[in-house]
Design brief:
The chain is of the alpha/beta class. Helices cover 39% and strands 15% of the residues. It is built from twelve helices and 13 strands. The strands form three sheets. It has a seven-stranded mixed beta sheet with strand order 2-8-7-6-5-3-4, sandwiched between helices. Strands 9-10-13-12 form a four-stranded antiparallel beta sheet, with helices on one face. α1 packs antiparallel against α7 and α2 packs parallel to α7. It starts with a strand and ends with a helix. Bound molecules: pyridoxal-5'-phosphate. Pyridoxal-5'-phosphate binds next to α3.
Amino acid sequence: MAMIYFDNAATSWPKPPAVRAALNEYFGEAGGNPGRSGHRMSVAATRIVENAREMLAELFHARDASRIVFGHNATHALNLALYGVLRPGDHVVTTSIEHNSVMRPLRHLEKSGVGLTVVACAPDGTLDLDDVRRALRPGTRLLVTTHGSNVAGTLSPIGTLAAIARDNGVLHLVDAAQTAGAIPIDVQEMDLDLLAFTGHKGLLGPTGTGGLYVRESVALAPLIRGGTGSDSAHETQPEFMPDVFESGTLNVAGIAGLAAGVHFLSEIGIEAVQVHERKLVAQFLVGASEIAGITLHGPGDAAPRCGVVSFNVAGAMPSEVGLLLDESFGIMARTGLHCAPAAHRTLGTFPTGTVRFSFGWFNTPAEVEAALKALREIAAWAASGATVSAKGNP
Ligand SMILES: Cc1ncc(COP(=O)(O)O)c(C=O)c1O
């Protein structure tokens, strides 16, 4: 049975061979701690980190690479931005399709006196910009929006949202977990304040990598404090970028792999990745819309989407469909609530959730065709009223 990986929104697979090679190279030749010691292996590790920082700055069109802060993942970056900006008495606006890595910190901050407004999106995940404008008020400090929904695939117009925020004197934080590496992002042209990204999805790097772009004018308090290898005579946190936000030893091996992933993407071009994923989404949407019993969620058109599609099969739980896809057809998908209960409430798919396919650069039209064939069989089986255990192999 051929293996088909459609879970790139959870983490991308496979990684380019250069990513694996970069990890090996780090452990073999540059295994030191960056910025800590003066010896060659420490210097080599520093070079790896700073090279990766430059590459990410180039990817996102940031003028100054020191504005890119490395962390563990998008969740870490989002927490840094949210806790770094918001104080009791502030008001924050977000949307109803956000991931729990935004919702949970915001619900926690709400308990400590931060006012929270969640703007309801339409059932296809789209946002009415007038609703956003109406939600802003004096005292609103931050607008937080995902760029690409990890459930519906819907893309938000982050450039327009940034302009709305700026016109109202509000900071704007973008969650680019699903789009960094897959959709072009230009922090200067889009006029972005804060951009959280993860390294292990579209950027094709290892898990345990990610970061935050912080615009020059944004004042942010650090989430943690500690050793940075710099300013070591002082017991207080350095205030300069990026050290103020990078206490503790970085995941240098992961960052080496991330740089290799970004290099791989820069050779392809992010626009080419977007076109490729959009073609796969369009192929899937057309094919699946012709299968009786399948309900598709999200925008009907492939154009305003990232590489994520969500659907349900009448007569079967998402988990049953996921099990059959994996065990009988070798297709790996994610089912359930995708760490985004608010998004599923928006789509009307709470609490059982959906089946999600998320496509990446290494997926092919033949794989989408194979998945459509599998879904035809699964939908027919589900319509027959059988159960998974009774069915085994449709
Ligand atoms: C929209 C969105 N935001 C944030 C995250 C969190 O990413 P990470 O697990 O890399 O922290 C995810 C992960 O699935 C996501 O889809």
